[in-house]
Design goal:
The structure is a single chain. By secondary structure, this protein is of the alpha+beta class. It has one domain. The protein is about 30% helix and about 10% strand. A hairpin with a 4-residue loop joins β5 and β6. It is globular.
Length: about 270
């Protein structure tokens, strides 16, 4: 019988042994295929991860707003139902001391266990998606809060509205009525009345504003807290002061008239 030749090599002790054949590496084509597959997987996963991060920030922002709405409920109980009537109250109601002056401190702070003149620890006022606005890089750093109050609920009686708004006269009348506003005078559904929202919510419905400040990844989308204490992600359009989803007007009689007039506002 013919014997098959087996390659041998000499071992250190002088005896013959089998020759070990090392396995070969990847070929260039195999490496290119693997790289292409990884590229496709990254292209699929990265947008999904970005959307997930945006969703997490949006939910954290809503959680902040719910806590602040609850703080407002306690504030109103202690103030016999009267809303804050200070100048710049829509920004100076609470948060840390930012670049804008707050001569009387931040009156909502004690209701979230912060001093009125807090310089740190005010994260409940900080939206994790805060990207600032047209003139500021961070609303939290500039104003001490990422969230803006409804100016038809807080602040001095003189509220400035644009004359190009078809509802200008009606809004001005509402502003004049709400000086020293008490919660007992509110005659609309509190579950639809906006109490506050992320910084972009205010220019979103004001006709004269040219700013589009959207932190949460969807056009016209904003987080807002309602007077009843809950928070939602809603879509706001310029010139629409009252919709089935939200309302910025605290008086039912004015709200019905504004609904009629705002129909002439072109959506932008």
């Amino acid at each position: 019988m013919r014997r098959e030749h087996v390659p041998c090599r000499w071992t250190p002790d002088g005896s013959p042994g089998k020759l070990r054949v090392l396995p070969g590496g990847f070929s260039l084509i195999e490496l290119l295929v693997v790289a292409a597959i990884l590229g496709v997987l990254i292209a699929i996963l990265v947008p999904g991860l970005a959307r997930a991060r945006t969703q997490v920030k949006r939910l954290a922002c809503q959680s902040n707003l719910r806590q602040l709405a609850l703080a407002w409920h306690h504030y109103l109980q202690d103030s016999r139902g009267y809303f804050l009537q200070e100048t710049d109250a829509e920004f100076n109601y609470g948060g840390k001391i930012g670049q804008r002056k707050a001569p009387n401190g931040k009156p909502l702070n004690p209701y979230v266990r912060l001093p009125k003149n807090a310089r740190e620890g005010a994260e409940v006022f900080h939206c994790p998606g805060d990207q600032g606005g047209a003139r500021v890089r961070s609303c939290f750093d500039q104003y001490g809060t990422s969230y803006v109050m409804n100016p038809l609920l807080v602040g001095p009686p003189q509220v400035q509205f644009s004359r190009i708004d078809p509802c200008y006269g009606l809004l001005t009348a509402v502003g004049n009525r709400r000086g020293g506003l008490n919660r007992s005078k509110i005659t609309v559904n509190e579950s639809r009345l906006v109490l506050m929202g992320d910084y972009g919510w205010l220019p979103a419905w004001q006709v004269a504003s040219t700013e589009r400040i959207e932190w949460h990844g969807r056009p016209y989308g904003h987080n807002v807290a309602f007077l009843d204490g809950h928070a939602e992600f809603v879509y706001l359009r310029k010139g629409l002061h009252v919709t089935p989803e939200y309302n910025v007007i605290p008086f039912a009689d004015a709200m019905s008239e504004i609904m009629r007039v705002q129909q002439s506002v072109p959506l932008k």
